[in-house]
Amino acid sequence: MALQTSLFSSKYLQEEEALSQECKELICSLPKEKGWIFSHIYKYEGFWYSARHLQGVIACQKYFLAQESDIFLVTTPKSGTTWLKAIMFTLVNRKRYPVKENHPLLNNNPHNLVPFLELEYMDNQQPDLSLSSSPRLFATHFPYFLMPNSVHDSACKIVYLCRNPKDNLVSLWHFAKKLKLQATAIHSLEEAFDMFCSGLSPCGPFWDHVLDYWNESKKNNRILFLKYEDMKEEPAVHLRRLAEFLGYPFSADEEETGMVGEILKLCSFDNLSNLDINKTDKKAYGMENKSFFRRGEVGDWKNHLSTEMTRKIDKITEQKFSEVGLVL
């Protein structure tokens, strides 16, 4: 995959004024609720999007043509996307970009190396994706059933990363506070909690998004379902598992020379968050790169959620997942 150099401007952080006429007409017919970052989110096919994001989703559904070798990283927002983008880019491109040399991650935010597919289509129905050589790496927040038809009809591979909903909520709230554009957007953690539990989160409901991929992964060997907590606990084990799934297994020589550890060190939260490009630059989607890094820990929800909040969100999670055997 060639180095992705196209950058999004702050247009991503605009709202209805930048919409096409077609999208303006569509959102007028959709259920609308208060947003987290933008003033409103809109319900499309059962999931909630900002107006700008929705425009990209619809155009991508219509025009994106998948290639057999494409690789997709799918998450709900704030589920460890930045970390796994870095890992997957480094893993797949380790022959082209040796880890110990001047690696692209040292001078690029992971979001500029692995673009969000639907955001490529946000302002352009025919974006130039030619800079990406095979295999192309994309990230997305698409629910599985809303993926472009060409993805469903191809042999491309999908990696789904999910996170404990309590940590997901807390991370999403902090992120929204940093980027909130309208005075009417979300404020308190209590408000964020109530909205999240009601399914009113970006690309949510969270539980429906996760369940969609969990169920599909049980019958579709093109989908690898990963948990953020498992990867944090045993990163080397799951990096090897990821490498095998993607068709880039580690050779005996690579194992002997410590390639697994080198990739994990390069892509670690501490290393990435302390790079100059991620402390001072403002490139990824027009946002400050540092906004994509906060703590990257498991269990930070304990510092924010009350006992009552914890009990409520755990009950929802059990109700949603117990019958399918998924534990988060």
UniProtKB/TrEMBL annotation:
A GO term, aspect molecular function: sulfotransferase activity
Enzyme kind, highest EC tier: transferase
Pfam families: Sulfotransfer_1 (PF00685)
EC number annotated for this UniProt entry: 2.8.2.-
Key word Transferase present: yes
Record key words, sorted: Transferase
Ranges of residues in domain Sulfotransferase: 69-324
InterPro entries: P-loop_NTPase, Sulfotransferase_dom
Sequence similarity: Belongs to the sulfotransferase 1 family.
Protein name: Sulfotransferase
Organism: Fraxinus pennsylvanica
